[in-house]
């Protein structure tokens, strides 16, 4: 009888071990699925930067960062190809001034940034920087986005 209890206990341990391994493999596959979803999102963002709508997003990102900084003399860092897409810095500066209550001027940095898309705004003295690139926004919201992706993929 004692021998039978030992055998039963060993079988229970084997089953528990197999279940644990199966859970690990499922979690690993889910994580791979989530990573693939993020890679696809980055590819879609790269494609999006070639659309007409992207210009509106660039302007909104500049406006958002400029207001958050509170106006002033601001430098826009962006991809080389994006600087040409933004036609009216004066109008954007006026909007920032209006919303922040402070005078604002905008100019492009001479040094382009390497990113999928978006902008980085910095004060002229570089004391304040707001990174409004797509990569930064994805990273900042990673947990929330990851949760939503997991729900979509696995529920």
Ordered list of secondary-structure elements with their pairings:
Layout: H1 2-48, H2 53-69, E1 72-78, H3 80-83, H4 89-100, E2 104-108, E3 118-123, E4 129-133, H5 134-140, H6 142-154
Parallel strand pairs: 1-2
Antiparallel strand pairs: 1-3, 3-4
Helix pairs in contact: 1-6, 2-4
What this model shows, in words?
A hairpin with a 5-residue loop joins β3 and β4. 16% of the residues are buried. The model has no long low-confidence stretch (mean pLDDT 91). It contains six helices and four strands; from the N terminus they run ααβααβββαα. α1 (2-48) packs across α6 and α2 (53-69) crosses α4. The protein has a four-stranded mixed sheet. Helix content is 65%, strand content 15%. It has helices spanning 2-48, 53-69, 80-83, 89-100, 134-140, 142-154, and strands at 72-78, 104-108, 118-123, 129-133. It has 155 residues and is of the alpha+beta class.
